[in-house]
Amino acid sequence: DSGVTQTPKHLITATGQRVTLRCSPRSGDLSVYWYQQSLDQGLQFLIQYYNGEERAKGNILERFSAQQFPDLHSELNLSSLELGDSALYFCASSVGRGDGYTFGSGTRLTVV
Amino acid sequence: EDKVVQSPLSLVVHEGDTVTLNCSYEVTNFRSLLWYKQEKKAPTFLFMLTSSGIEKKSGRLSSILDKKELFSILNITATQTGDSAIYLCAVKGSQGNLIFGKGTKLSVKP
């Protein structure tokens, strides 16, 4: 157990729907990062939050949004889902910006 | 655009062999390079390198960074079937997020 908790572990939903993925960072970690991993693209950075504020944005689609709450857990919202959004979504956390990440076990999203 | 390129993309060896995995990068404001091992699910941390020419070692695994030539290698000696995994190289830029390569899939046959 890495200390980073992601729920749910698996999610199957239909095209056009909206889902929310949840991440609880390791105790004491202030930064949360979201990554998407698909077979052909590898791990793609989506977005980073630090202590409740957005710090960096990567290749995140406009249909996707995220937030980090006062208790430091984070949610990634994916809407108007398309087949191509099927992937593993990882959350990672770190103490600050200059540290190694600890990854959660991921949420496997399947859009049918 | 920042990028990290790993080679080879896949590799098949036999137990006992030594392997070298390569990672080259182009990143503005380089801060550090990290290696991860990914088996079934979450990537697990192996090494973080920030200084050129200093080897990091952990058991049969070792890694070194060359900041002048912008690359790193990960060596695994006396490979075992349990080393079979995808090895990911990532570089941390100035914003703090990691930029990953596509990984090298290593298969170790008994």
How many strands of chain A? Answer: 11
The tally of helices of chain B reads: 0
Beta fraction of chain B: over 45%
**Spatial gap, N to C terminus of chain A:** 30 Å
Distance between the termini of chain B: 41 Å
**Which chains share the greatest interface?**
A-B, 24 and 20 residues
Whole-number radius of gyration of chain A? 13 Å
The description of the largest β-sheet of chain A is: 7 strands, mixed
Poorly predicted sequence stretches spanning 5 or more consecutive residues of chain B? none
Helix content of chain B: under 10%
Rg over CA atoms of chain B:
13 Å
* pLDDT averaged over residues of chain B: 92
Task: Provide the succession of SSEs of chain B.
Answer: EEEEEEEEEEE
Write structural notes for this entry:
Chain A has 112 residues and is mostly beta strands. Helices cover 0% and strands 54% of the residues of chain A. Chain A is built from no helices and eleven strands. In chain A, the strands form two sheets. In chain A, strands 2, 4, 5, 6, 9, 10 and 11 form a seven-stranded mixed sheet that branches. A four-stranded antiparallel sheet of chain A has the order 1-3-8-7, with no helix packed on it. Chain A is globular, with a radius of gyration of 13 Å. The relative contact order of chain A is 0.33. The model of chain A has no long low-confidence stretch (mean pLDDT 93). By secondary structure, chain B is mainly β. Chain B contains no helices and eleven strands. In chain B, strands 2, 4, 5, 9, 10 and 11 form a six-stranded mixed sheet that branches. In chain B, strand 7 and strand 8 form a beta hairpin. Chain B is globular and about 40 Å long. Chain B starts with a strand and ends with a strand.
